[in-house]
Amino acid sequence: MTRAARDGRTDGGNASTGAALITGGAGFIGTNVADRLLSDGRVVTILDNLSRPGVERNLRWLCDRHGARVRVEVGDIRDPRAVKRAVRDATQVFHFAAQVAVTTSLLDPVDDFEVNARGTLNLLEAMRSRRDPPSLVFTSTNKVYGDLEDLALDADRTRYSPSDAAVRRHGVNELRPISFHSPYGCSKGTADQYVLDYARTFKVPGAVFRMSCIYGPHQCGTEDQGWVAHFLINAIDGKTITVYGDGMQVRDVLFVEDLVDAFLRAQANMRSISGHAFNIGGGPSNTTSLVELLDHIETLHGERPEVEFDAWRAADQRYYVSDTRRFRAATGWAAKTSVPAGLEALYKWLQDARPSVPVQLASDTVAS
Known about the structure:
Helices cover 41% and strands 17% of the residues. By secondary structure, the chain is α/β, with parallel strands linked by helices. The protein is globular and about 55 Å long.
């Protein structure tokens, strides 16, 4: 049985076997998606401007593993000609190219908009120009729901929990009104809405993932993005971790291999899910607060990292957990990797990969 059959990929025609385009394909998520597709015998075009330190290492790793089936287009999502060139042969598109940090968006909102909103529009227009537009999965963010200040919370020793029993049991669902907060939330939210509308208005097949925290191999996070890996890196390096706020803020965390499964399920079911947005994360069974993550790290590493606390950061949600039931009902997908198992896998990868992988290796995941 092929991996495609095991993953439940049932697309007809050439979509599931033709060339795939991954924008931001040299980053964390892009590398994992590319590796899965290439391992299935697909041809993959990677569009990346290689501006993030260290991403060339990901490309070398992919090329060493998969050879000529990796096609590299060095270009910027803000360049319509480069985007149109990259799209021309694709049967499926995975759009990850982005400015990913709330903090960076606060420093330069215009650049944040140009990359996230205008860049996505460039991609959609390139797809629309095709007589047979490829199908698109776009990674949006839970930040489209704002800071969730109206969500009543209870606090215990290590975490916040929703007072509402339904939210506590299932998480935040897609009926939650969007309420963009921060320039990053605005730019990603704009892109989110454009993808949904191009599916409705121009029949460009596309679905949106409003993502929570993603972690796993090939992630070398920083303080501003990829915080799970960032905490582990600092623990390995013996550096102090800065926690913003009280550390009891809760996220659902999703192991990257489970996310890749979700992407492939989305593409396989695009006829039925096009034009819809889905909250994607580990769900209520895979959550951690920041201080609880420190407990996990102590178990893995044998000692607790040094921690200092600082003020809350703008737009930081005290609680966000994805209700993934809508996507599960549409595709049969469910997260499989527990938090302890996923953290152990990332910890071992970081130990093996470092010191050859620089700490500032950025990823293209959505900031949480």
